[in-house]
Amino acid sequence: MAEKRTINRRKFLGTAAGTVAGVLTLGSSVPASARAGKKEEKAGALITRTLGRTGYKVPVVSMGVMNADNPELVRRAYEAGIRHFDTAYGYQRGRNEEMVGRVLVEELKVRDKVVIATKINIRPPQRSLPAEEIREMHRKMIDESLRRLQTDYVDILYSHDVSDPAWLKNPALVDSLLEIKEKKKARFIGFSTHQNMNEVIKTAMEMKIYDVILTTLNYSLFDYTEYLETLKTAAAQGIGLVAMKTQCQQAWYRESVPAEMRRFYEGPVIHSALLKWVVRHEFIATAVPGFTTFEQLYTDMPVASSLDYTEEEKKFLEDRLVRTQMAAVCRACGQCQPTCPKGVDIPNLLRAHMYAGSYGNLYQARETLDSLEAARSVQACSDCAVCAARCVRGVNIARRLDELKTLLA
After folding, report:
1. Where are the beta strands (DSSP E) in 68-218?
2. What three-state secondary structure class fits 214?
3. pTM (2 decimals)?
4. Where are the alpha helices (DSSP H) in 169-268?
5. Cα(371)–Cα(336) distance, rounded to whole angstroms?
6. Which residues are CB-neighbours of 194 under 8 A, at least 6 positions away?
7. What is the pLDDT of residues 365-402, one digit of tens each?
């Protein structure tokens, strides 16, 4: 199967280059079907959808740049047809934004042909600061991001890592984002959410000021019907939905895999199948898988041309063992919290473990840990001889926390 799916680079890029002309458009009047995230006409071989009320039409596969540190990979992604690039103020201590700006703006000079999204993370301890201090932090951070990106504006500015609806409604946050939008430093505003997504997105729908939401969606959520319905409703209201964490890059779903199943986990089938499952939901405008190698780009990009499952992909997704393992991936639902006598922030600790152990991104793992108060971080686990925390879905929390301590010692 791997040999059949191997892509010739010259043929791949030549085909892609001829199919992306005119993909990115911006219009003030967007049809209802587009606002709902439904499939748009294909630009050549690439399936495109409109990103809600923004009017941007982009391929269903975009690039999450977070873990990438090779400028050539960003260049190759653009050549392959990707037109939406997602970064953040804090990724790689600012170097990630610098790389995006250098490649897309300075070298390729395609600023008007791409959608650039970045994020500002006001950490939980800072969210209780006086309103003017929060507003000033936003002003300084957006200006720094624009300098790094070598642009006068970003297409989308997110408030990063929102799990509490109260922060979403915080007047200082709302005023900051609206001010940035009014000054045309961001065309559209939104937020990213990894935890408590369902409640946070419901709050956003009530507020009616957020244009785009970057949210977790992957096959581990296949039976979370309430969340899927919430996403569908949000898209119908004109909110552009971008999916992240699409391919469940967490180590424990690969554990104890029988020999006959290993080909799924060692080859490209798992990646294309999981990505297709996400973008086959028509309320999702685009997904931002985190490419770190050319092989990953060449495996994922063909999904933008066809969402039809191959027979092996169907077999993988329908396999009972796969579904069982995927169901045990952390959903950041928070139901483990009451089982921890120390009250540590288990969902965010497991997210830090994912960044370090599965993505190999120690910077982002450290950034996640630094956002937590010491009493709620992994330091609080040091006095526990036996971890009492339990997951309702079977995630081995104790093992993850032990590995996290080792990885970041």
Report:
1. 84-86, 115-120, 154-159, 186-193, 212-216
2. strand
3. 0.82
4. 171-182, 197-207, 225-236, 262-266
5. 20
6. 161, 163, 216, 245, 332, 347, 351
7. 887 887 788 888 888 887 788 888 888 877 888 888 88
